[in-house]
Write a structure and sequence with these properties.
The protein is of the alpha+beta class. The protein has helices at about 45-50, 60-70, 165-185, 225-245, 290-300, 305-315, 320-325, 330-345, 350-375, 385-400, 405-415, 420-430, 435-450, 450-460, 465-475, 480-495; strands at about 10-20, 75, 80, 85, 95-100, 105-115, 120-130, 135-140, 145, 155-160, 195-205, 215-220, 250-255, 260-270, 280, 285.
Length: about 500
């Protein structure tokens, strides 16, 4: 496919995402699965392929793969098979990788994600189980070191259909998968530690022409959302330039060099026959019962994309707040439980709780998490503030029992002591001051102390109204109702003219 004309081009992108599973041991052996151990301390005869060693499948790997597949609405094969994929790289000590080929455990699913606030459904071709390889560390001077601790760690490879059309959209899909595996407790998704790595397949075609099958370039082992977006953008630009200059696109595998901001050729694109796939003779067929599928389905939690949509539709949250809350499961759980706790407070119900949900979101995101993050507490459950505590605080503010300013003081005290909001309000006498006669006396005293500002206001500097209101709020330690104070100050200033 080549052209010297400026034909509008459309990127076609598919993702292959390798996700390490949360298991204590490796997929086919008893060696521990631990990140950061001393090099080559977590190996055994099976991992390194010693003669006579035999693989034994880890049952938890199967359970996690089924959980992930069902969460993505995949068909779970009743019988699947393991195959040997042959290649001779130093990080693969057996000379082959145990994986699944034509009969993967999960097929035909969907990854739901938001892109530009619109829900997208990316078709998933397959999810299969395989073992990870070791890790090469290139030292320069044609020297490399090999750490086989990672070899044999359980992976699920998630393969999408080539139905993404921009780098930003691909990054959004990758973020959604990371979010999902963390929600399901299938993987920690730590890309900086290699727990999740992304291969991106990119080709270009004339815009809208689905009949064209263009040469495909694979970007290998990208380990951050930022780099995925940068690498795909670079590759789109590189291929576009080649296309318009009439230079043929070579079907190949490339590596992303984030330091230089460019991709580099690694090897010619392999075909399936290059790997000499065949069923692994040491591993029997993998049988998944209907009972296992039904039980796993019944235990599935709400999908994070569905949860975000529920927060928008049912609680009337802004999309940005809902998306931010749902980003982490613990965060979404805490918010959900706070809304539930609000409904159970005296004289409250589900209807009033839904009405207060945006207020709860504001106090949760901006105030509570703002303070906790400043104290290096990431999870609200690790603080002394419970969902019930936060719900009561929001109720006192919505009922105008306390002012917002007083609420911030109460929250700080709650975080320090773990006491509930009403107890703190009573102890510190922070209930909202609404007694007009008392406020009028305070205002009169204030005006006497600031005759110059009072005169300036009367001559037209109306911005000074905020000065007087602020002084009153300071004088009452934030317990006066700001609306009442504002009206009383305006009235007092008009009387002094």
């Amino acid at each position: 496919m080549s052209s010297s004309t400026k034909t509008p081009l459309e990127p076609v992108i598919g993702l292959e995402i390798h996700t390490q599973l949360l298991t204590k041991s490796k997929v086919f052996s008893r060696s521990a699965n631990v990140f950061g151990a001393s090099p080559n301390t977590l190996t055994d005869p099976t991992v390194v392929g010693m003669p006579g060693s035999l693989p034994v499948l880890n049952q938890r790997v199967v359970d996690l793969a089924v959980r992930l597949g069902l969460a993505m609405q995949c068909h779970i094969r009743p019988i699947s098979y393991f195959a040997r994929k042959h290649y001779f790289y130093p990080d693969s000590p057996k000379g082959y990788q145990i994986t699944q080929h034509n009969e993967p455990i999960c097929e035909h699913g969907t990854l739901s994600f938001f892109f530009n606030k619109i829900r997208q459904d990316l078709p998933i071709t397959r999810i299969h189980i395989e073992e990870d390889t070791g890790k090469n560390s290139h030292q320069g001077n044609n020297t490399s070191l090999i750490d086989l601790n990672r070899a044999g760690v359980a992976l699920c490879e998630v393969v999408s259909a080539p139905m993404l059309h921009s780098a930003a959209e691909a990054a959004a899909a990758l973020r959604a998968l990371r979010q999902l595996v963390r929600y399901l407790n299938v993987s920690d998704g730590n890309m900086d530690q290699g727990s999740m790595r992304c291969d991106a397949n990119i080709s270009l075609r004339p815009q809208g022409d689905t009949s064209i099958t263009a040469p495909r370039v694979e970007l290998k082992n990208i380990n951050s959302f930022k780099f995925v977006e940068q690498a795909i953008d670079y590759e789109i630009q590189r291929q576009t330039k080649a296309y318009h200059e009439g230079v043929p696109i070579v079907e190949e595998t490339r590596l992303w060099d984030h330091n230089k901001g460019r991709s580099l050729p690694l090897r010619k694109k392999d075909n399936a026959w290059d790997y000499r796939f065949f069923h692994d003779p040491d591993l029997p067929p993998l049988h998944i019962s209907e009972e296992t599928i039904n039980k796993t389905n019944s235990d599935l939690i709400e999908h994070p994309t569905d949860r975000c949509q529920r927060f928008v539709d049912i609680f009337s949250l802004s999309f940005s707040d809902a998306f931010l809350i749902v980003e982490e499961k613990s965060r979404a759980d805490f918010f959900d439980q706070t809304v539930t706790a609000f409904a159970l407070l005296p004289e409250q119900n589900e209807t009033t709780a839904k009405s207060a949900a945006q207020q709860i979101a504001n106090w949760f995101l901006s105030e509570l998490l703002g303070v906790l993050y400043g104290q290096h507490i990431i999870n609200a459950y690790d603080s002394k503030v419970s969902p019930t505590h936060l719900a009561l605080l929001v109720l006192l503010i919505t009922k105008r029992t306390i002012t917002r300013a007083a609420g911030k003081e109460v929250l700080i005290d709650m975080i320090k002591t773990g006491n509930d909001a009403q107890t703190i309000v009573n102890e510190r006498k922070l209930e909202c001051v609404t007694d007009q006669s008392n406020l009028e006396a305070i205002i009169d005293e204030l005006l006497k102390k600031h005759p110059d500002q009072m005169l300036a206001y009367q001559k037209g500097k109306e911005g000074l109204l905020g000065f007087f209101v602020g002084k009153i709020m300071q004088n009452t330690r934030g317990t006066a109702d700001p609306k009442i104070v504002r009206e009383l100050v305006k009235h007092a200033l008009s009387r002094k003219i």
